[in-house]
Amino acid sequence: MRILISGNRRGLGAALTDYFSEQGHQVWGFSQASAPPNRVDASDFGQVRDWVESVVHHYGAPDLVLANAATVLSPAPLAQVEPEDFSRLIDVNVKGVFYLFRAVLPHMTRGVLIGISSGYGRTTSPRMGPYCTSKWAVEGLVKTLASELPKTMAAVALDPGTLQTDMLRQALGEGARFFPTPDQWVDKAARLILGLGPAHNGQSLSV
What is the CATH number of the domain that holds 79? Predict the structure, then answer.
């Protein structure tokens, strides 16, 4: 299987990249922290498109696409969130999902596209307004896309659950240590992801 993952240098993206590779799948990923040619800003459509075009040209269209790149702000009331910080989060968490899907869709006639969502995309929490907003948007984007796809494809919003990542530590501080690490989570998550197909189109799922 050919798999593309955005935001694959840390957290669940890195864990999935390693797991899929160890299982014999062909995996390509990008992030801002990667070395060239995989150093790509998810919020820059030109960079995302060029990277996707290069991978597809050399290796063929993907079977599975995971739009995982995301960022989070430190918890704060909306009245205290800096507009430029909110804008940057939306650029990565929402536009980044659209940009990756937009870049790969012209090359795909079958396969699965996953937008990594969150419990915060299905509920709300005080002081987490920007992140909740972005993940609710991912849910809506995925469900709309699902209504447009051929029967050989699927778009799924996936809540990975609460994991002990750098993003969670930024949001929860010391409380993050009570949650599983990506390495403890990845086997169950990967098996769920690899089992997705057209029958799951439009669904909001959770690990």
Answer: 3.40.50.720
